[in-house]
Amino acid sequence: MKKKSSSSVSKKVIIVGATGNLGPHLVSAIDSEPRFQVSILCRDSSDCSKFPQHIPVHRVDNYDASDTNLVEILTGQDVIISAIATNAVLQQKAIINAAVKAGVKHFVPSEYGHDTRNERAAPLLPPCFFTHKKQIVEYLQSKEAEGLKWTPFVTGPFFETQAVLLKDYGDHHWSTTTLSTVALAVKNAISAPAEIVNKYLFVESFNVSQNKILSSVESLTEAKWDVRYHDAGEQRQLASEKLSRRDYSGLTTLMGYVTCVGGYGGDYMQYEESANVLLSLPRESLDSALKKMVK
């Protein structure tokens, strides 16, 4: 009888935060791969009833509430994929602690989005968007000696959440990734050899500009859009003032600013190596992706 190759050995994968924007895509991608046995970890207050019945759901009161319960749930798991909400990213510390105790081998943190290492962008936004995410990666680094591997993904903003907001940086390019491609990247990464662990992976579906997106949308809709140009610095100042008053309506403007203005990490492929080929990600059509959104 032939011995199974390591690539054919089944892995147990548990997904945290499966009910958010990215979570269902992760569940679908991992569940589609026969090598993986997927399960879900969610809070009692979350609605996990929409997932297929064959996928086990483990519930806890809070991710940071009962370490003993978490350890019991995570024992036997090979990989934890976290898509926990942005405002709860620090709760991953308790999950990481439980993962180490349970002998989990690999942790994918809820890092998806901007390059959170950028020191110019971090002060502009609440800590959960940059600082806390970076702290989680640093915490994972501190657990390497205990056998826990980690892989964070920099994806740019999810393409499906993009809005055409033109400022005076309409021609500046940035990276963005579709939700399905983010999920595929994660699935392929946890199947990949050792070179993908303990480092950031940078992926993208498109490298675009606001003007490029606008041109494509106008072509698809066969209509000229009414566009108003704003001074980027002025908009940033107004949004920052709102944030200082705990008015979070300016967050979208600030996220757009750090994405579209040079020097804030939005165009990260200028200084980092793309993992698209390593992760066997497909080439995507901007027009096709926009066509789905326009419909």
From TrEMBL:
<keyword id="KW-0521">NADP</keyword>
<feature type="domain" description="NmrA-like">
    <location>
        <begin position="10"/>
        <end position="154"/>
    </location>
</feature>
<dbReference type="InterPro" id="IPR036291">
    <property type="entry name" value="NAD(P)-bd_dom_sf"/>
</dbReference>
<dbReference type="InterPro" id="IPR008030">
    <property type="entry name" value="NmrA-like"/>
</dbReference>
<keyword id="KW-0560">Oxidoreductase</keyword>
<protein>
    <recommendedName>
        <fullName>NmrA-like domain-containing protein</fullName>
    </recommendedName>
</protein>
<dbReference type="InterPro" id="IPR051609">
    <property type="entry name" value="NmrA/Isoflavone_reductase-like"/>
</dbReference>
<dbReference type="Pfam" id="PF05368">
    <property type="entry name" value="NmrA"/>
</dbReference>
<dbReference type="InterPro" id="IPR045312">
    <property type="entry name" value="PCBER-like"/>
</dbReference>
<dbReference type="GO" id="GO:0016491">
    <property type="term" value="F:oxidoreductase activity"/>
</dbReference>
